[in-house]
């Protein structure tokens, strides 16, 4: 009897398998992976499988709303009556659903994805006769954006003994890019970063810089997709005088020159006056001497001169 019961059970199981009768309790909808990553601008397919059923009425893909607590957004739907496919307004021209009822597949196709397509998507199956199965499943789509060309800048004065910062930043990038600096000497030979240099969020801090700090610095911005670079040519110069100091020095030099010129003019003027005074005194002495010799009044000096 035991052998007979066992044989009957085996026969029943074999029969059910051969006839395609499912022993599961209901519909099962499944998306293989929970996260799908794709580069911006590319096309993506999110697969969805379900248990084939003769009573299935429709399959649809929906996505999260732009604003929380608002109704979900319809992407595309498939209706078994008439085998009709409907692409909803927001996704017209770039969404489609590929359905195979016998194989139990309903794959979502999205073309030219953008950053706005980063959200959760849900595959739903409507089967009026199924009250026990799992009729939906969700997955997240993450649209990756390559780092944009980073912008490099020098913050601070590139002069001896100063502290400066080299900055590097990409305006775009999903996930957020990471940054790495490399240094080359003036002969374009790779070298380690200075001992006291530090990197943080794309900023390279250089302390107490000198002529040896001069060279080429390259920043690489990287995320999961690809990388981009920018470079800085750093020339460290001796300290320079600022405009105020330069103007002060020039003003001082001009002031000293004017002062010296005034002194020279005064000296020349005083010397000239002294020479004229001495000349006048000499003439007076000569005239007095002549007057004494000829006995003439001072007014007749020319006549006395003729007589003598």
From TrEMBL:
<dbReference type="InterPro" id="IPR042474">
    <property type="entry name" value="A33"/>
</dbReference>
<keyword id="KW-0472">Membrane</keyword>
<dbReference type="Pfam" id="PF13927">
    <property type="entry name" value="Ig_3"/>
</dbReference>
<dbReference type="InterPro" id="IPR013783">
    <property type="entry name" value="Ig-like_fold"/>
</dbReference>
<feature type="signal peptide">
    <location>
        <begin position="1"/>
        <end position="26"/>
    </location>
</feature>
<protein>
    <submittedName>
        <fullName>Glycoprotein A33</fullName>
    </submittedName>
</protein>
<feature type="transmembrane region" description="Helical">
    <location>
        <begin position="247"/>
        <end position="270"/>
    </location>
</feature>
<dbReference type="GO" id="GO:0005886">
    <property type="term" value="C:plasma membrane"/>
</dbReference>
<dbReference type="InterPro" id="IPR003598">
    <property type="entry name" value="Ig_sub2"/>
</dbReference>
<keyword id="KW-1133">Transmembrane helix</keyword>
<keyword id="KW-0393">Immunoglobulin domain</keyword>
<dbReference type="InterPro" id="IPR036179">
    <property type="entry name" value="Ig-like_dom_sf"/>
</dbReference>
<feature type="domain" description="Ig-like">
    <location>
        <begin position="41"/>
        <end position="142"/>
    </location>
</feature>
<dbReference type="Pfam" id="PF12104">
    <property type="entry name" value="Tcell_CD4_C"/>
</dbReference>
<dbReference type="InterPro" id="IPR003599">
    <property type="entry name" value="Ig_sub"/>
</dbReference>
<feature type="domain" description="Ig-like">
    <location>
        <begin position="162"/>
        <end position="233"/>
    </location>
</feature>
<keyword id="KW-1015">Disulfide bond</keyword>
<dbReference type="InterPro" id="IPR007110">
    <property type="entry name" value="Ig-like_dom"/>
</dbReference>
<dbReference type="InterPro" id="IPR013106">
    <property type="entry name" value="Ig_V-set"/>
</dbReference>
<keyword id="KW-0732">Signal</keyword>
<dbReference type="InterPro" id="IPR021963">
    <property type="entry name" value="Tcell_CD4_Cterm"/>
</dbReference>
<keyword id="KW-0812">Transmembrane</keyword>
<dbReference type="Pfam" id="PF07686">
    <property type="entry name" value="V-set"/>
</dbReference>
């Amino acid at each position: 009897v035991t052998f007979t019961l066992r044989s009957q059970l085996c026969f029943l199981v074999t029969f059910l398998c051969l006839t395609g009768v499912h022993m599961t309790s209901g519909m099962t909808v499944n998306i293989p992976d929970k996260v799908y990553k794709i580069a911006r601008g590319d096309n993506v397919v999110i697969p969805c499988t379900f248990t084939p059923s003769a009573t299935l009425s429709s399959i649809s893909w929906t996505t999260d709303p732009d604003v929380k607590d608002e109704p979900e957004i319809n992407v595309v739907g498939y209706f078994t009556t008439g085998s009709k496919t409907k692409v909803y307004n927001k996704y017209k021209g770039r969404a489609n659903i590929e359905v195979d009822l016998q194989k139990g597949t309903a794959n979502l196709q999205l073309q030219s994805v953008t950053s706005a397509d980063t959200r959760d998507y849900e595959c739903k199956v409507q089967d009026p006769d199924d009250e026990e199965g799992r009729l939906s499943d969700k997955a997240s789509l993450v649209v990756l954006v390559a780092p944009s060309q980073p912008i490099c800048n020098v913050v601070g004065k590139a002069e001896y003994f100063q502290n400066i910062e080299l900055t590097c930043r990409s305006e775009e990038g999903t996930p957020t890019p990471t940054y790495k600096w490399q240094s080359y000497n003036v002969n374009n030979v790779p070298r380690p970063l200075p001992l006291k240099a530090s990197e943080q969020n794309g900023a390279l801090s250089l302390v107490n810089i000198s002529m040896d700090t001069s060279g080429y610095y390259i920043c690489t911005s990287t995320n999961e997709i690809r990388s981009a670079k920018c470079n800085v040519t750093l020339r460290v110069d001796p300290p320079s005088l600022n405009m105020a100091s330069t103007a002060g020095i020039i003003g001082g030099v001009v002031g000293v020159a004017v002062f010296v010129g005034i002194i020279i003019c005064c000296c020349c003027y005083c010397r000239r006056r002294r020479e004229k005074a001495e000349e006048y005194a000499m003439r007076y002495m000569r005239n007095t001497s002549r007057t004494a010799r000829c006995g003439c009044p001072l007014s007749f000096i020319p006549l006395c001169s003729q007589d003598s």
